[in-house]
Amino acid sequence: IVSKLPQVGTTIFTTMSQLAAECGALNLSQGFPDFDGPQTLREAVCRHVIAGHNQYAPMIGLPALREQVAAKIERCYGRRLDETREVTITPGATEAIFCAVQALVQPGDEVIVFDPCYDSYEPAVQLAGGRCVHVPLSLPNFAIDWERLEAAINSRTRLIILNSPHNPSGALISRAELDLLAALIRDYDIHLISDEVYEHLVYDGAPHASVLAHEELYARAFVVSSFGKTYHVTGWKTGYVVAPPDLTDELRKVHQFVTFCGITPLQWALADYMSAHPEHVDELPAFYQSKRDLFCDLLKGSRFAFTPTPGTYFQLVDYSAIRDDLSDVEMAEWLTREHGVASIPVSVFYQEPPQDLRLLRFCFAKREDTLRQAAEKLCRV
Ligand code: PMP
Ligand code: GLN
Fold first, then answer.
1. I want to staple 44 with a disulfide (CB 3.0 to 4.6 A). Which of 22, 230, 242, 269 is the partner?
2. Could you tell me the CATH superfamily of domain 12-30+280-379?
3. How far is the CA of 322 from the centre of ligand 1 (A)?
């Protein structure tokens, strides 16, 4: 068989989680909590399964859940949506991104992504016959390099994929940057996918500048989020995508033939929980900030260098003072095998990683005792 994705192997998340399991290491690699989502949310799934909510959901998602998503968005970002024409529930943010890419990208089109770049974007673009143009974020803060972005835009550019808060760096795109972007693409036929799965994981009082709150950008955007991150249930693979009606129509043409719909009892449970607990999203920043602060405080006793992450549940650390001789892929493997803590090397998210990149990503969506154990091991390195 002639591979359609010849350069794609097994994802780093699978590789590192497997290595962690093999070595009995603490798994701070793949991004998922080691604690459960709210008990009432989990009980609601059981209730709906027993109540017989087990057949196909509507293709566009359960009305009650779309209404809750629209209510949350109005509360958080001040945008009033038509939940029938603009909100679609999907089996995970990954499916939403895949469908949006297939709906937009034609053979020969260019798609701008920022490196380091989440690993599901490029294969989706390639399967659509498009080509990713990688624009590196500038170090050390992983900010958009506006000159390089401008230079990458041309008449073939069909799509730009934004991700804020950014995986793996945690960097945030500001409202002022969204304004700059709007001005930059105003005269082009360019659409956006805004991957905002970590929208509620922002720290130190910083606001999340959502594309949903930006009139001009929203008119050409698919905005994607994930209940998995927000409700600590990554294994539920349930997300949503919000877009103006004309874009939503095209997305749904793809979505109905990729999976048709999301999982019914999960959607019922999420709708119940969101309606009973609108405060959940408001409490998330403090919840994860205390984990970030604990992890960072404990790491001060180590030889890793870092700046506390502004968003996401990932903390980058520089290990050059410890093993400058090792690449980050080697370092991640060594740390897992020799010190019992698994992480994600950052270079794998680059088309061309900077030569001297010595960064690892740790996921701090973990119980306090896990973070303490991990930090104790890391302080001994
Ligand atoms: N985008 C980013 C930036 C992510 O980190 C993740 C996953 N964790 C996803 C998308 C996918 O989300 P989901 O699990 O809902 O498909
Ligand atoms: N998004 C998660 C991370 O960045 C991983 C999701 C996956 O395993 N595909 O760690």
1. 269
2. Aspartate Aminotransferase, domain 1 (3.90.1150.10)
3. 31
Q: Is there a cis peptide before residue 116, judged by omega within 30 degrees of 0? A: yes
CA 196–ligand 2 middle distance (angstroms): 14
The structural domains of the chain, with segments of one domain joined by +, span: 12-30+280-379, 39-276
381/377 Cα distance (integer angstroms): 7
Contact in structure between 221 and 251 (CB atoms under 8 Å): no
Q: How far apart are CA 160 and CA 146, in angstroms?
A: 13
Ligand 2 touching residue 169 (CB < 6 A): no
Which ligand has the minimum distance to the alpha carbon of residue 259?
A: 1
Rounded distance from Cα 12 to ligand 2 centre (Å):
9
Distance CA 81, CA 240 (A): 13
Cα 301 to averaged position of ligand 1 atoms, centre (Å) = 31
Residue 168 Cα: closest atom of ligand 2: 4
Predicted ipTM of the assembly: 0.98
Q: Does the domain at residues 39-276 carry the CATH identifier 3.40.640.10?
A: yes
